[in-house]
TrEMBL record:
Record's protein name: Uncharacterized protein
Length: 85
């Protein structure tokens, strides 16, 4: 389903989505097609669903005109081995 269709069906609310089609451009993920898993009634529930989401699932608000997600690489964490002082 296109994001414009999702926005028409679920105006001004959070939805749990699964990414179906996307592309990268300038370190940003542009999502073109999604599957709607379910609408989410409030922000607190949206936060719970976001933290539980795995793989290509994510939560987004339909007030956004497009789905564009900035991709950040995880910084490496360096620390001393525990046996050294």
């Amino acid at each position: 389903m296109l994001w414009t269709e999702v926005r028409d069906l679920f105006p001004d609310q959070f939805v749990l989505l699964e990414e179906l089609k996307s592309h990268y451009e300038d370190r940003k993920l542009h999502i073109e097609e999604v599957a709607v898993i379910k609408p989410i009634p409030d922000a607190q529930e949206a936060m719970k669903e976001l933290f539980a989401a795995k793989n290509e699932r994510f939560v987004y608000h339909t007030s956004n005109e497009n789905i564009i997600i900035e991709v950040r690489s995880k910084p490496m964490i360096r620390r001393k081995p525990s046996h050294e002082s």
